[in-house]
């Protein structure tokens, strides 16, 4: 059971990382768009 709980924690952690990375990518894209114009 402990292993399953640990997996859940890892999954949520990775999901958070993905969301943060997505936001970072979007911000970078916005900055690039601003600089290009």
Roughly how many Å apart are the termini? 55 Å
Q: Give the DSSP E fraction (strand runs of 2 or more residues).
A: under 5%
What proportion of the residues is helical, as a percent range? over 70%
Q: What structural category do the secondary elements indicate?
A: mainly alpha
Bulk shape:
rod-shaped
What does this structure look like?
The protein has 37 residues and is mainly alpha-helical. The longest helix has 35 residues. It is rod-shaped, with a radius of gyration of 16 Å. The N and C termini lie far apart (55 Å). The chain is 95% helix and 0% strand. The protein contains one helix and no strands.
Task: Give the arrangement of secondary structure elements.
Elements: H1 2-36
Structure at a glance:
This protein is an all-alpha fold. It is built from one helix and no strands.
Question: Which features would summarize this protein structure in a list?
Answer:
single chain; 37 residues; 1 helix
């Amino acid at each position: 059971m402990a292993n399953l709980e640990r997996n859940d924690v890892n999954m949520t952690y990775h999901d958070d990382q993905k969301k943060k990375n997505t936001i970072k990518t979007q911000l970078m894209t916005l900055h690039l768009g601003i600089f290009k114009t």
